[in-house]
Amino acid sequence: MKIRLFPAVLAAVALVLAGGCSKSPQQKAEEAQKKVEEARQQLEEKMPGGLSQMTEAMEKMGEAMKTGKAEPVDPKELEGLLPADAGGLPRVEASGERTDQMGIKVSTAQAAYQRGEEPGRIHLKIMDLGSVQGFAAMGAVGWSMVELNNQTDDGYEKTLVYSGCKAYEKYDRTSRSGEMKVLVADRFLVEVDGADVAIGEIKSAMAAVDLGRLKGMKNAGVTK
Fold first, then answer.
1. Which domains does the chain have, with CATH numbers?
2. pTM for the whole structure
3. For all residues of the chain together, what is the average pLDDT?
């Protein structure tokens, strides 16, 4: 199944989230769930019998929207998970921030890694999607809802299970660039992007992040 199946679903969710500021987060969640169901029905009409995986994913999305909200953890806690070295490259800069837009709160920590003026650069980001946990994770990260395994002469793109979590990996051998993303506890998103590096260096950078600590923070700040 290709990611091309997702625009109808993601567009429906995006339209609701971009709606008037006067609507409460609960109203937006209810409207988003309704739009997702309508999109699912439309897709089933166009592709009867061929959307079992999509249907299952949407049902999980609906369940996620019913779960409690969570106050995102302090960005400094996420910064503490940024390794001093990633893929053999030293950290050259790091930052953290917390945003709140229309009731959607997100904490982010990110760092860049590079060895002087030498080629090769890695960027690592950790996000806590707290206030819209499973909804944001399942609705905004399309790859977490499908199985991909696309191979070409120049590279590949695939989904996989990494350390017990849903993950996505992509690499282009010609440009020596790629990315790896891991969705932890349907709440935290860890992303590694690399330019002019080997795929092994990207994987090494991901391995340097303590995903176990993130899993342990799954219920931090959760309210019903």
1. 3-66 (no CATH), 70-223 (3.40.1000)
2. 0.71
3. 79
